[in-house]
Amino acid sequence: MQPPRSTPSSSYPSSERSLQPNPPHPLHHLPGSHPHPLHHPPHHVPPHARRRPTLRSQIARWLGRNWARLSYAYQVEPLWLEINHHDIVIADLPPAFDGYRIAHLSDLHVGRQLPQRYLEEAIEATLALAPDLIALTGDFIHKGYRHVAQAAQAVGRLRAPDGLFAVLGNHDFSVRNALGYRRYAGLHLAVAEALSHQGVVVLRNRTHWLQRGDARLPLCGLDDLWSRECDPVRTFAGVPAEHPRIVLAHNPQTIHLLQDHRWDLLLSGHTHGGQIDWPGLGRITLGKKARQLAAGLYSHQGAWVYVNKGVGFGFRFRFGVRPEIALLTLRRTARPSATPATPPGEPAT
Ligand SMILES: [Fe+2]
Question: Is 8 part of a structural domain of the chain?
Fold first, then answer.
């Protein structure tokens, strides 16, 4: 049997093997000799003798690392749903609503890229939470009329004792920016009608009063900010000025239209959390203003804003921003597990 001819130093990569200051002992090369592994232990290599990685190896490492990240961001994370639980303390909350549970979904973006199986998994995960109410904050479809029925049918499988409530997002209005130009003038009407047909209550600048015995809590739904049909005055008409209320609005920046009104919790989406939170770069797809309300729970002037990262995606790529379903539990007072208050504009999660 051929004796092993390797020396301890030969276990190094070839580029480093040449760095060994002491060549293998001549005895190691004699036929039949067996090198002792302790003759040239690695720590005999002085640190100063180690060569820096070459540019080529650095590039190879960078490419390898980022190729792995890109594959993960396309294959894994866009379909890796997470459930986020939050307790939310609301002053003056009617006692009957203490512990009330709202499942919050946003930005399904049903379209060509969203796998039907993943959509069904999201529906099943929501049903498993058994919430009192399900809130859907817009962007049911990604683009055009083609997937309206598919989105409505998926949502129509949801069930909750107090019902399903929705507001429309900018994609439902086919509006891509704050200028308000609509590519399909009647798309939002088709989305609203399809949802209504499936038993979803679409709140277009109006309020639905939730009932628990004699206690009532208004659930107020606003049209999308960019649609230019967002009307808080009309929405809050009939709600006493000091009565606590829950607001649904697709775009979290809607809070700037609500300065003359009381609101306690606003559920929103729209940002998708930027979909990318790249190491060292952050949420590169969001502008400065959007980053202030990017994802999660924020406190704002004594009220709460929840920015849902969304179930679907605008483009199939997520990194560090997993899709989510939120389960929000309303509380009259803080409990040990409740989310602590944070300074205005600071994320509470
Ligand atoms: Fe969206």
Answer: no
pLDDT tens profile 184-214: 889 999 999 999 999 999 999 999 999 999 9
**Is 343 among the domain residues?**
no
- Predicted model pTM: 0.80
- The radius of gyration computed from the CA coordinates of the chain, to the nearest angstrom, equals 28
Q: How many domains does the chain have?
A: 1
pLDDT value, residue 45 = 61
Residue 4 tokens read as 């092993």
> Distance, CA 269 to ligand 1 centroid (Å)?
7
- Helix (H/G/I), strand (E/B), else coil: 173: coil
Mean pLDDT of 330-342: 66
Q: How far is the CA of 330 from the centre of ligand 1 (A)?
A: 25
Domain span including residue 255: 68-331
Q: pLDDT tens for residues 310-328?
A: 999 989 999 999 999 999 9
98 falls within a domain: yes
**Residue 94 Cα to ligand 1 middle (Å):** 33
Quote the ligand 1 centre to 69 CA distance (angstroms): 23
Q: Over 80: is that where the pLDDT of 273 sits?
A: yes
Q: Label residue 128 exposed, middle or buried (CB < 10 Å: 0-12, 13-18, 19+).
A: exposed
Looking at residue 87, which CATH number applies to its domain? 3.60.21.10
Has residue 26 been placed in a domain? no
Which pLDDT belongs to residue 17?
A: 38
- Rounded to the nearest whole angstrom, what is the distance from the C-alpha of residue 235 to the centroid of ligand 1? 23
Neighbours of ion ligand 1 (CB under 5 A): 107, 139
What is the CA(121)–ligand 1 centre distance, in A? Answer: 19
Q: What is the spatial distance between Cα 161 and Cα 289, in angstroms, rounded to a whole number?
A: 37
Q: How many Å lie between the centroid of ligand 1 and the Cα of residue 313?
A: 7
How do strand 265-268 and strand 303-307 relate by DSSP bridges? Answer: parallel
